[in-house]
């Protein structure tokens, strides 16, 4: 079991060990008391008659996300969102995160067909837009048979098989849809020459981080990998340092509401960590000597010489930071006249978090862009009507009015004082302990997409 239970053992039954696991995570019961999870094993029939009485007509045209949402209660309730069916939760949670309230991925809906596209490109694009995204935005509901149309196309045209009924991960769905079928331009371009739609946080575990935020893990991953972003991505999809439901590097991770990517860009102007002047050198070896962020390892020429004159840093190898031609003279001239020069930071906004617990994916999604926008929690299989063979799942959207307040410094100190995850409020526990993928977007970069 993923969570401990009071009646659990470490894999022993009576005095006999049958297998090994963590304490209180094994539970034994009679076989005739077991049954398949009704959310995941259903009938093979997928006609509209098996999904309830809710209508879900296709909608043509261009439909924008709902605007001016100040109170998420108007978006919430049962039979809201995308209806799950046959292990579709990975796809439901991801699509809802991408399209329900944000424009960040809309370019996928409008790109004209190109000569090298697959023959069924326009069919896939039409199903995605008219059968799923438009109804979701206008009616706040997409019936499961509409999702099955997309799954059938993905299974037939993509490189990942089993999309019709098997459990998959969001990254498998994204790679199949974006790379192999829609052939979108990769969102992420790295200094190593690699391009990708998703960035997984590969890091060596830092035991000093008890409850890290994604900002820390993001910077640590780029530092340890010794790479940079070549440009600001319009959308940044970050996969947490975990592998499905089987392994988590950190028990709790706090999603940063805003992600500062300035210090991982290969061409960005930055301030000296010591004097605030224009930085011209970066030294990886100075990490944690003057602070625990990447902003603490950049220095102007004067400060770099002073710092590395110390014998303790004689082996350090600071690297030159490229500065736009003439920019250093411009900064020096402005400051000579007493004018303040502010070096802009490149900030990306968190728009959604997909979470996983015991093979089931759900998502937390922000209703629009900007500060003070409400958040909702979405589960495509929150409830069920009918039996295993002729029933259907009930999707639900729930308001999360306090989500942004969970991550204030004061609240984080309170959370650190709660050792048992089960003592945390349910949605807060899901967000901290089960986060799997974080979606960030740059309003500026999207203007050029």
Number of continuous helical runs: 11
Report strand %: 15-25%
The major β-sheet equals:
9 strands, mixed
Q: pLDDT under 50 segments (min length 5)? A: 39-49
Q: Roughly how many Å is the radius of gyration?
A: 25 Å
Overall pLDDT metric: 89
DSSP summary, beta strand count: 20
Instruction: Give the proportion of residues in helices.
Output: 10-25%
Apparent shape: globular
Terminal Cα separation, in Å? 44 Å
**Structural class label:** alpha+beta
Strand and helix layout:
Blueprint: E1 12-13, E2 16-17, E3 77-78, E4 81-82, H1 89-99, H2 107-110, H3 121-139, E5 141-142, H4 144-157, H5 170-181, E6 188-189, E7 195-196, E8 199-200, H6 214-225, E9 235-239, E10 242-243, E11 247-248, E12 258-260, E13 281-282, E14 298-299, H7 301-307, E15 319-320, H8 327-336, E16 347-357, E17 360-366, E18 375-385, E19 392-399, H9 409-416, H10 426-434, E20 435-441, H11 443-447
Parallel strand pairs: 4-5, 8-9
Antiparallel strand pairs: 1-2, 3-19, 6-7, 9-20, 10-11, 12-16, 13-14, 13-15, 16-17, 16-20, 17-18, 18-19
Helix pairs in contact: 3-4
């Amino acid at each position: 079991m993923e969570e401990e239970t009071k009646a659990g053992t470490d894999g022993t039954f009576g005095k006999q060990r049958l297998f090994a696991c963590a304490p209180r995570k094994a539970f034994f019961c009679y076989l005739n008391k077991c049954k398949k999870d009704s959310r995941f094993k259903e009938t093979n029939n997928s006609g509209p008659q098996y999904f309830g009485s809710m209508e879900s007509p296709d909608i043509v045209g261009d439909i924008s996300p709902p605007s001016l949402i100040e109170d998420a209660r108007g978006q919430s309730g049962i039979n809201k969102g995308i209806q799950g069916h046959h292990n579709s939760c990975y796809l439901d949670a991801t699509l809802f995160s991408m399209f329900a309230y944000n424009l960040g991925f809309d370019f996928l809906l409008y790109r004209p067909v190109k000569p090298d596209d697959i023959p069924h490109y326009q069919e896939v694009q039409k199903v995605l837009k008219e059968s799923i995204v438009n109804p979701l935005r206008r009616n706040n509901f997409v019936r499961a048979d509409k999702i099955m149309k997309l799954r059938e196309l993905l299974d037939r045209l993509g490189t990942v098989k089993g999309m019709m009924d098997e459990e998959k991960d969001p990254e498998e769905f994204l790679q199949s849809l974006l790379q192999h079928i829609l052939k979108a331009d990769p969102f992420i371009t790295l200094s190593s020459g690699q391009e990708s739609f998703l960035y997984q946080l590969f890091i060596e575990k830092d035991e000093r981080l008890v409850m890290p935020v994604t900002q820390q893990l993001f910077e640590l991953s780029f530092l340890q990998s010794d790479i940079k972003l070549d440009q600001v991505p319009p959308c940044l999809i970050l996969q947490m340092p975990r592998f499905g439901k089987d392994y988590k590097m950190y028990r709790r991770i706090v999603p940063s509401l805003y992600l500062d990517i300035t210090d991982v860009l290969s061409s960005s102007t930055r301030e000296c960590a010591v004097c605030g002047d224009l930085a011209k050198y970066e030294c990886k070896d100075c990490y944690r000597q003057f602070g625990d962020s990447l902003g603490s390892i950049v220095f102007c020429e004067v400060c770099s010489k002073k710092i590395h004159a110390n014998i303790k840093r004689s082996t350090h190898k600071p690297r030159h930071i490229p500065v736009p031609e003439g920019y250093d003279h411009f900064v020096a001239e402005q400051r000579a006249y007493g004018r303040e020069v502010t070096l802009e930071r490149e900030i990306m906004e968190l728009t959604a978090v997909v979470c996983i617990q015991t093979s089931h994916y759900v998502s937390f999604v922000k209703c629009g862009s900007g500060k003070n926008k409400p958040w909702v929690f979405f589960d495509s299989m929150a409830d069920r009507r009918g039996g295993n063979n002729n029933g259907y799942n009930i999707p639900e959207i729930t308001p999360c009015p306090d989500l942004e307040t969970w991550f204030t410094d004061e609240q984080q100190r309170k959370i650190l004082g709660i050792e048992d995850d089960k003592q945390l409020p349910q949605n807060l526990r899901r967000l901290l302990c089960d986060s799997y993928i974080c979606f960030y977007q740059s309003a500026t970069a999207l203007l050029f997409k």
